[in-house]
Amino acid sequence: xxxxYVTKSGLEELKTRLEDLKSNKRLEVAAKIKFARELGDxxxxxxxxxxxxxxxxxxxxxxxxxxxxxxAVIIEESADKNAVSIGSTxxxxxxxxxxxxxxxxxxxxxxxxxxxxxxxESPLAIALLGKRKGDxxxxxxxxxxxxxxxxxxxx
Length: 155
Description:
about 160 residues, alpha/beta, Helix Hairpins, Chitinase A, domain 3, 2 domains, five-stranded mixed β-sheet, two-stranded parallel sheet, about 25% strand
């Protein structure tokens, strides 16, 4: 697995989620399986099949989280506050429409567009990385059009 870029708080969230799944959710699923077994014939027991399926999804999520934690690289604050880097919060202006947006560039694990957090692997983040206040960045959208952004502020 490749490196997973996360903030310090993002790594703590991953670890907390992993611990919860291992210590609480596993017990819940085990109880569901035990209850379903007590219902009788396992070959035609929908509750048992559903509980075993839930167990499979749970174990897969646990493995994925363990891999992310194992390969986590903490995003350090850049020494150069004047250039966009992973961890930067950037205010940009859509040159064509005049809309201002603010995004924080995070690792893919923490990306959440509704919170203004974009993945460092997203086209917008890739276009912004390394740029400075006043620079322009062009992003090609999935339909092939180009959107130009001007960097207004870097935090």
